[in-house]
Amino acid sequence: MLYLYLALGIALLGGLLYWLLIITEGTYLGTRVVIFLYDLVATRYDGIKKLVPAYESFFLGAPLVRALGGNPDPLVLDVASGTGRLAQALFAEPGFTGKVVGVDHSRRMLSEALRALRKRAGERLFLIVQDAAALGFQDAAFDCVTCLEALEFMGNPKRVIDEMVRVLKPGGVLLLSNRVGKDAWAFPGRMCGRGRLEGYLRQLGLEDVHGERWQVHYDLVWAYKPE
Ligand SMILES: C[S@@+](CC[C@H](N)C(=O)[O-])C[C@H]1O[C@@H](n2cnc3c(N)ncnc32)[C@H](O)[C@@H]1O
């Protein structure tokens, strides 16, 4: 009987650790753990993701350029920019003539972004180590703010969204990802699953809020700040 309880205890502990460290990537253990884990995998991150440039253009680069249409020199903020995925998608678009500011708490993820983008982006890319929950920019500074595959790893996603909306110009475009799909239930309190994120954005007064299917685990959510 003792062995049975012992085996049960070990299985429960293993399951808990798997949920805390692998599925939810440390988010319920605090920002430091999340960033420690991203620092750890930074050099392998792009290899694990295996992004396809054509999809990146179809879902991110091209629609963003269209959304920023009339603006000849847009300033884009990518929050939790990681290894520079969004900047790569934008700089690959011939129609994108603006600048990108990437903010991430993981120094090593940003080092990878710098390595990948230094030549192509030149003076049009700025990378800053910063916590997404306290963006060091003035109000209404950016024409576009994005945050992809990251909100569910933040201790207080609402605060991060409030910050992103604060630094967005009136008329500016907000593009977020929303964790959906089978494992969304594993992120309690992180606004995952269809509808919650969209509801919060509408509550903040954003306009034309709409979700779009993107990947197995993520939808894209578009919204605009009223003029
Ligand atoms: C799954 S990666 C996504 C990176 C990139 N947006 C992409 O789509 O490839 C999540 C990123 O969020 C960053 N991150 C997590 N918590 C953060 C926080 N509180 N402030 C800033 N960045 C954070 C991590 O360092 C990591 O680079």
Do you know the CATH topology?
Rossmann fold
Number of strands: 7
CATH class, named Alpha Beta
- List ligands, each type once: S-adenosylmethionine
As for the number of domains, it is: 1
Biggest sheet architecture? 7 strands, mixed
Poorly predicted runs are: none
Binned, the helix content reads: 40-55%
| Main β-sheet, spatial strand arrangement | 3-2-1-4-5-7-6
* Residue share in β-strands: 15-25%
> Helix count, per DSSP?
7
Q: Class by helix and strand content? A: alpha/beta
Radius of gyration of CA atoms, rounded to a whole number: 18 Å
Multimeric status of the protein:
single chain
Task: Provide the residue-averaged pLDDT.
Answer: 95
- The topology string of helices and strands comes to HHHEHEHEEHEHEE
In CATH terms, what is the architecture?
A: 3-Layer(aba) Sandwich
Description of the molecule:
It is a single chain. With 227 residues, this protein is α/β, with parallel strands linked by helices. It has a single domain, classed as Rossmann fold. Helices cover 43% and strands 21% of the residues. The protein contains seven helices and seven strands; from the N terminus they run αααβαβαββαβαββ. It has a seven-stranded mixed beta sheet, with helices on both faces. Helix 2 (31-49) packs across helix 5. S-adenosylmethionine binds next to helix 2.
